Amino acid sequence: MKLTQTNNKVFIAQGNCVCPAGFSLSENISALLNYKSAISLHKQSPFWNEPFYAAIVEDHLLGLRFDALSLEGTFSKLEKLVLLALLPIVKQHASEDKIGFIFSTTKGNIDALSAGRGEINLHKTASKLAQTAGINGEVMVLSNACVSGLMAISVAKRLIQEGSFDHVYIAAGDIFSTFVFSGFQSFHAVSLNPCRPYSANRDGISLGEAAAATLITRDSTLAGYEAFEILGDSSINDANHISGPSRTGEGLHLSIERAIFSAGIKPSDVDAVCAHGTATDYNDEMEAQAFTRSKMNDAPLFSLKGFFGHTLGAAGLIETIVSLEFGRKNCVPPSLGFDVIGTTQPLNVSSELRHKSIHVLLKTASGFGGSNTAVVFKKRIN
User: Fold this and answer.
1) Which pairing describes strands 138-142 and 99-104: parallel, antiparallel, or unpaired?
2) What's the confidence (pLDDT) of residue 183?
3) Could you tell me if 172 and 314 are in contact, meaning their C-beta atoms sit under 8 angstroms apart?
4) pLDDT at 3 over 80
5) Does 48 share its domain with 103?
6) Domain holding 234: CATH number?
7) N or C: which end of the chain has fewer CB within 10 A?
8) SS3 state at 17
9) Is residue 328 part of a domain?
10) Domain end: 186, 202, 222, which one?
11) Are 165 and 280 part of one and the same domain?
């Protein structure tokens, strides 16, 4: 395949995703259009002795889908999820093309510890995924709390622009585990109901498990019709607290400001914002402060946490993939669970599906340790 030069431009191709609401991008889009959330009530579960809400992929359904791939070897739940997302998007490349692979996750095969299966090695998992998918290239792991999935897009873009790679595959995934669930419970951050980002009556997150995959490339033909160019990006750490975000939204504000600047656009050029929106008091308020300071109050804004739950290292990637697909349809997706605004600063939260011309989309993410990332995408119409 001959590489099409694009003057240092980098594109994101249509991706794929797997979660309890669907085992493909199209299935997930259909579920969201029908306001059907991946979050459900789990009355009997090995994770907790009381009912709780979460987005957990049923093992038997995952097994049926994965067995159809007829792959040799033994695979963990996380690996099955990621491969179901990754395999359908892997393409043929010219022998001279430089290929990279980034695996984005926060905890990897964390369930191996409680099952007594030994240590967790993220790079070994990443290498296994790349080899199984037939991706012959350099393998990298990006694990930076809940900005990991979005930051992987930024890193891939920069690696391509500096000439290290022609194409970079990104796969992201995290599973629901007792380790993660108990950790968020210790913060009193888990909602008793399906989460409600930015709402006055929000009371915490709903956790989820999911996987997503996409191709970042400088070849516009591989990116497909109505591809999105990765126009600008920035990651700023606010260094505020190991888990608490900056009250002023400093890190996110600077990330947005610099991403907008590097994209060469104005805040008013942004047609929609896919925000982090975890539905915790501190995160949503921090974001409201940051978006206000960044002059983004008027842009239609949405959170997909009410649909996917919080999928940790997969969140930034899976939410980007779904957001861009809605952008191709010139729609702003609904923020499931949102009702009445509950932040001190006004936000134009999309509670229902909106039909709107989408040319420029901003995606943001924030995470523990003060991490923040913002990426600007611009639709390229062939």
Assistant:
1) parallel
2) 87
3) yes
4) no
5) yes
6) 3.40.47.10
7) C
8) strand
9) yes
10) 222
11) no
Structural domain containing residue 344 = 230-380
| 264-297 confidence digits (pLDDT tens) | 999 999 999 999 999 999 999 999 999 999 999 8
Place of tokens 């957001």: 323
| Structure token pair of residue 334 | 């609904």
For residues 360 and 110, the model is more confident at: 360
Judgement on whether residues 197 and 51 belong to the same structural domain of the protein: yes
Predicted local confidence at residue 117, as pLDDT: 67
3-state helix, strand, coil in the chain (%, to 5): 35, 25, 45
In total, how many domains does the chain have? Answer: 2
pLDDT digits (tens, 9 = 90+) for 162-192: 999 999 999 999 999 988 898 888 878 899 9
Same domain, 210 and 346: no
- Which residue bears the tokens 């611009």? 378
Rounded distance, CA 360 to CA 363, Å?
Answer: 10
- The string of DSSP letters for 118-173 reads ----HHHHHHHHHHHHT--SEEEEE-BTBTHHHHHHHHHHHHHHTTS-SEEEEEEE
One-letter identity of residue 283: N
One domain for residues 49 and 129 = yes
Query: What is the value of pTM for the model shown?
Result: 0.95
Q: How confident is the model at residue 225 (pLDDT cuts 50, 70, 90)?
A: confident
Kindly tell me the burial class for residue 328, based on how many C-beta atoms sit within 10 Å of its own C-beta (0-12, 13-18, 19 or more).
Answer: middle
Query: Tokens 């108990």 sit at which residue?
Result: 182
